[in-house]
Amino acid sequence: MHLTEDHEALRATIRKWIENDVNPYVDEWEEAQIFPAHKVFKRAGDLGLLGIDKPEQFGGMGLDYTFNAVLAEELGLIKAGGVPMAIGVQTDMATPALARHGSDELRAEYLAPAITGDIVFCLGVSEVGSGSDVASIRTTAIRDGDDYIINGGKMWTTSGTQADVCCLLANTSDDPAHKNKSLIIMPMDTPGVSVARKIRKVGMHSSDTAQLYFDNVRVPRRNLIGQEGMGFIYQMQQFQAERLWGAFSTLGSLQRAIDCTIDYTRERKAFGKSILDNQWVQFKLAEYQAELDVLRAACWQGAHAVARGEDVSRLATTCKLKAGRLAREIADGCLQFWGGMGFTEEVEISRIWRDGRLTSIGAGADEVMLQILTKMMGIYR
Ligand SMILES: Cc1cc2nc3c(=O)[nH]c(=O)nc-3n(C[C@H](O)[C@H](O)[C@H](O)COP(=O)(O)OP(=O)(O)OC[C@H]3O[C@@H](n4cnc5c(N)ncnc54)[C@H](O)[C@@H]3O)c2cc1C
What we know:
Blueprint: H1 5-22, H2 26-32, H3 37-46, H4 65-75, H5 82-93, H6 96-101, H7 104-116, E1 121-124, E2 140-144, E3 147-158, E4 165-171, E5 181-187, E6 193-198, E7 209-220, H8 231-267, E8 269-270, E9 273-274, H9 279-307, H10 313-336, H11 348-356, H12 366-377
Parallel strand pairs: 1-4
Antiparallel strand pairs: 2-3, 3-7, 4-5, 6-7, 8-9
């Protein structure tokens, strides 16, 4: 991977921000089961972190994807997975389609303030009855004059209790499932939008996750992103960015898992020596590091390919799959070396273990990644 002084300067800025403005507060946010997204995003926006690869015309830095990859990797240093996940939703999950296909008017109204951190975005794709099978969503947006009338609901919406705007996937016609969907910008304060509940989760506590209801929500048709009927395609493109992002942010947290386990096992004694002085422990940690380094190399290969404008569907899918596998293997294996302490809420490793479990489920489960790969290999039946 070829990184410049500019990449390293960005990395230093992100690290300083995390150290001063984020990590000192994450325990409080985990306890509260929500973090103050507006406050955190505003500071991140002031530093330019929410629009690294977004067009300069709308306040972004207009840099190539490798700079965004530095952000995703560094965010793994935040000591609670919920915060990087919500930032990823803002930059790489809910806004790429708007940035690429939205009208200038829509981008000025919604992308520009997302980049400055003045508004918080959520992504409304998954529903109670459809997660893996995105094509089967039921939410509708029916034309009525110059408006759409939206009915239905969304499930698992990250930042859903505090977001200002939702990038919503809805059915806009009765055409076949891959041609009847559209992405629509839906302000969350529109009458008819309600938060049905905030979902209690096993991990990612600092991120608020909501179930949303829509009852005759009226949104202007100019809030459509790109062309009507192209929403499924746009969302699949948006998923590629999301999957590479997910893999990158896993790198940072798993590096923390290995590093903090080395520190702990070096200090902790059993049978007259450090736990780390057992060759079994050393070999396991070396193997985890090797696996992580291979994933890191694949992620950076993907980042450079995106920067060159190449299609990275296969690599992003592979990285996401491998990141999910390693998030389970490395975090669980490291936790084992902490003994009873690893099973408490008092140490870093247990949070990495439970937060990382989502990587194999969110943004497409491991099995969905495998299904995509079988199609690319020509063996899908
Ligand atoms: C904390 C959290 C945050 C999230 N944030 C968002 C968000 O902001 N916006 C959003 O739209 N969504 C969000 N999601 C939803 C997430 O993307 C879905 O949970 C995920 O896509 C899986 O869908 P599902 O939960 O409905 O599982 P299901 O579709 O019910 O699948 C259940 C399981 O079935 C298996 N499976 C599925 N398909 C296949 C197959 N073809 N072959 C073999 N096995 C299969 C897999 O093991 C899968 O885990 C979030 C989820 C969580 C938990």
